[in-house]
């Protein structure tokens, strides 16, 4: 019953061993839930005949412990070197590792070398517009190849840690962007200008906002479809948006048509403002749904 406490005579008979077994069992169940009664029983046991025996046993155990195990001397704390910044950089490099190795880096180098060879060695005028067309999806492909079980043998373990989830995905994405954006932009600056059939076209850096927007859009879809499926949808959608108008138009050279199509997507305040708005919207969406990435591809 609530509020009930063991009487003194019941406590006394329990400590001296004269209480019936059934009553002792019932009292022990009560002591598991009642702190005041447990304290009274403990005090009565120490004050009774058993208390002397318990004290002797305790003293004997303490003598054995103190004589057989010497007390270690305190070791003075010596301040060591501060490795805080170095450790943080090492952890970041380790987390971004799969994004900086493997097939994606090789594919990026192949794209860069092929573009330079076609433009300067082969003299092909369509190199610049073709590279501008595929440049926005190269970071998307890099994200697909740097996150997931296929990229990291310890992915399930790492993704389940506090550093996993969206934080790990953003770290890998930042590593991909840090390599691909300057590499592709530098190569585009080194390529010859547009051909005589289309002398003007998008500037070299105009693809940066579209590339960043497509990359963030793939991260948003990753929360629903998984990394590889989301990047395939975004990358395929971009290539379709670039190629479909070329297949439906007639009477103009392919390079000129591709340059005009890219100008619609890249050149001007309206397209660039739209890409910037898409970036902000995707970033907000990732912040709102960050918990959806905690167990991403860990099952």
Key descriptive features of the protein:
single chain; mainly alpha; 14 helices; 0% strand
Describe the structure in your own words.
The structure is a single chain. The protein is an all-alpha fold. The model has no long low-confidence stretch (mean pLDDT 77). The chain has 14 helices and no strands. The longest helix is centred in the middle third of the chain and has 25 residues, at 166-190.
Please outline the helices and strands.
Layout lengths: L7 H8 L5 H11 L3 H13 L1 H20 L15 H12 L7 H19 L5 H8 L3 H7 L10 H5 L6 H25 L17 H18 L1 H22 L5 H13 L2 H20 L11
Helix pairs in contact: 1-3, 3-4, 6-10, 7-13, 8-10, 8-11, 8-12, 10-11, 11-12, 11-14, 12-13
Order of helices and strands: HHHHHHHHHHHHHH
Shape, principal axes of CA atoms = rod-shaped
Q: What is the helix tally?
A: 14
Uncertain regions spanning at least 5 consecutive residues: none
Distance between the ends:
48 Å
Class inferred from helices and paired strands: mainly alpha
Helical proportion?
Answer: 55-70%
Residue-averaged pLDDT: 77
Question: What is the C-alpha radius of gyration, as a whole number of Å?
Answer: 36 Å
State which percent range the strand residues make up.
under 5%
Biggest sheet record: none
Q: How many strands in all?
A: 0
